[in-house]
Amino acid sequence: MRARPDACPGAWRRHEAADGALARFRPVGGATGAAELRLLAAAADTGPLELTSRGSWQVRGLSGQGADDLADDLSRVGGDAPLLDDLGRDVPCSVVASPRSPAVDAAARAIADALRGRTDVPGRLLIAVDDGSGDVLGLDADVTVVLGGVLHLAGEPTDRTGDPAALALAAIEAFLAVRCDAWRVAEVGADRVREAVTGWYRSPGERYQPVTADADPVLDADPVLEVLPRLGEVSRDAAGVLADLVDEGATLRVTPWRTVVLRDAPADARARLDGLVETGPSPWSTLSACVGAPRCAKAHTDVRGDLTRAIARGQAGGLLPAHWVGCERACGTPAGPVAVVEGTPSGVYRTVVRAGRVSR
Ligand code: SF4
């Protein structure tokens, strides 16, 4: 059990870093509109806009007033799945979804809209809506619903089936009912949460909705383009091109793999993004890094600069995912097998191969 509430930043709750306030925005299933992208990129004027490993946008180096203004501006954008709604409410935890399939959009929206503005939902909670392809199922989210399939809790399948949104919300309510101070389903045990799933979801309006019939999985057959911003860093130029492509009819989804998926993109989209993001096979595809110096005061070195130089020398980028960090805290270490390349006070990096996630 945790002895303190989580400190995950959001649109209104910022993390004070060495380079100023850090605000985080959680897109609903990765959905980001052109106007939102332009506002985020314009606000990130001290560095690139960032994608996180939970498919969130992150803006660094903000002043308190600048962060408030950004949130206010975003709340005026509107749309089906806004980062902030017109009441200024963001989604308190990450709701990720299979990025290639429109079939998951409605469920992701229903889940996110029911959670907006809630203060009893830990920011560490991860909700996933899978289209049946298994892509986000593999994230071992706290709550995963698979279209036409079963509810998964902390990566374990259960015997609960039903309407994906209603089922996810029932599971979230069940977790909140038994969690005490826990942030994650695994901390209280998936079985305890499963037993508390009643099959009914109590909406904020006190209206009860039954869990209904299974939905059929519908996989998206449309062509998609997936591109990789290096280390999740989206430059203002890249954001501008992406926003233009959305204006021209593409649907944009950011993913928990720090990539950007464009559905129904114009034929020349790849060419327009070349040089701004990785558009083909790339050594960057298996690499991640913490922010490092100078933006983190604890860092022993400029991690991202060191990594860039190592790639240029052909010394980084391979089949095994590698995560470069500036100190022993190893922030952002991804789940699964990974080589953690850690900067040390002596200026030398040491590498530790890990079999799975380390809780920090
Ligand atoms: S791993 Fe260390 S250097 Fe990197 S962000 Fe975390 S605290 Fe900072």
CATH top level of the largest domain is Alpha Beta
Number of domains: 3
Bound molecules: iron/sulfur cluster
Q: Largest sheet at a glance?
A: 5 strands, antiparallel
CATH architecture of the largest domain: Alpha-Beta Complex
Output the radius of gyration: 20 Å
| Residue share in helix | 10-25%
Mean pLDDT: 88
* Poorly predicted parts: 200-222
Q: Record the strand order, biggest sheet.
A: 1-2-4-3-13
Number of helices: 9
Strand content: 15-25%
The general outline is globular
Q: Order of helices and strands, N to C?
A: EEHEEHEHEEEEHHHEEEEHEEHEHEEE
Number of DSSP E strands: 19
Amino-to-carboxy terminus distance = 14 Å
CATH homologous superfamily of the largest domain - what is it? Sulfite Reductase Hemoprotein,Domain 2
Structural class: alpha+beta
CATH fold-level topology of the largest domain? Sulfite Reductase Hemoprotein, domain 2
Task: Describe the protein's architecture and organization.
It is a single chain. The protein is an alpha+beta fold and 360 residues long. The protein has three domains: 137 residues, Sulfite Reductase Hemoprotein, domain 2, CATH 3.90.480.10; 129 residues, no CATH class; 72 residues, Sulfite Reductase Hemoprotein, domain 1, CATH 3.30.413. The protein is 24% helix and 22% strand. It contains nine helices and 19 strands. The strands form five sheets. Strands 1-2-4-3-13 form a five-stranded antiparallel beta sheet. Strand 14 and strand 15 form a beta hairpin. Helix 1 packs antiparallel against helix 2. It is globular, with a radius of gyration of 20 Å. The two termini are 14 Å apart. About 6% of the residues have low confidence. The structure holds iron/sulfur cluster. Iron/sulfur cluster (SF4) binds next to loops. The site of iron/sulfur cluster (SF4) has 12 residues, from loops.
